[in-house]
Amino acid sequence: MSNLFQVLIPLTDVRAGSTIPNENPATNRQLQDNPGASLFFLQKDLYPGAKMNLQFAIISKSEKAEFISQSINACEHPGIGNEEMYYATSLETLVEYGSSKFGKEVNVLTTVISGDKEQRTRTRKQQYIVSSGVRQIVSDNLVVCHSLPYPNAVFFCHATSEHTTRAYVVTLVGADGTKIKATTICHKDTSEWDPDHVAFQVLKVRPGTINPICHFLTEDNIVWAGKNKEN
């Protein structure tokens, strides 16, 4: 798990599998009101017909600028354990990195939201229903890349194994009719996560006690998954 996650939570979304130690409890409490915090859930709640109150928001340029300096500091933190980390400073290097890990035998996943983006910037949290056809992406290895709040394209990537992380593709239908093909990441072991992690605050659990903990990814995240006969 990387140390980038909690610094980036206030931007708009959640970043897969990361745990930034945050020494300011007040800041952590404020994160619960952030749209991204609503995207956490427990895997046991991922089933057709499940109802979730979620907000898939798009962040404004001014808010992005506010967190650029925090992102710079976050990039200096090491990963936890043997986690492999990589920073792509352009779309070209992002593709090169993904290709170097998987070659051509790769599935590239992202969250796709129907509707007008400008309209969604004003969308508040609403109820979504999980449609039938929750699909697990079976892969020995996953690479999750997150867009960072820089003026140019910069992505933070980290590699995980099937033993620690699962990926799913889930269809959500909102109360207003919005349809989302959401990429979802579930973490099997959270015992090494920081106790102040926003996920524990939202779900009211402690590190390592209830697993897996999952979260939906937003549109600026990419998951690379090696292909096999099951997907």
UniProtKB/TrEMBL annotation:
Q: Where is the BURP domain?
A: 8-227
Q: Which domain of life is it from?
A: Eukaryota
Taxonomy, top ranks, is: Eukaryota, Viridiplantae, Streptophyta, Embryophyta, Tracheophyta
Q: Which InterPro entries match?
A: BURP, BURP_dom
Q: Which regions span the lipid bilayer?
A: none
Species, as recorded: Papaver atlanticum
Instruction: Name the chain's protein.
Output: BURP domain-containing protein
Q: Which SMART domains match?
A: BURP
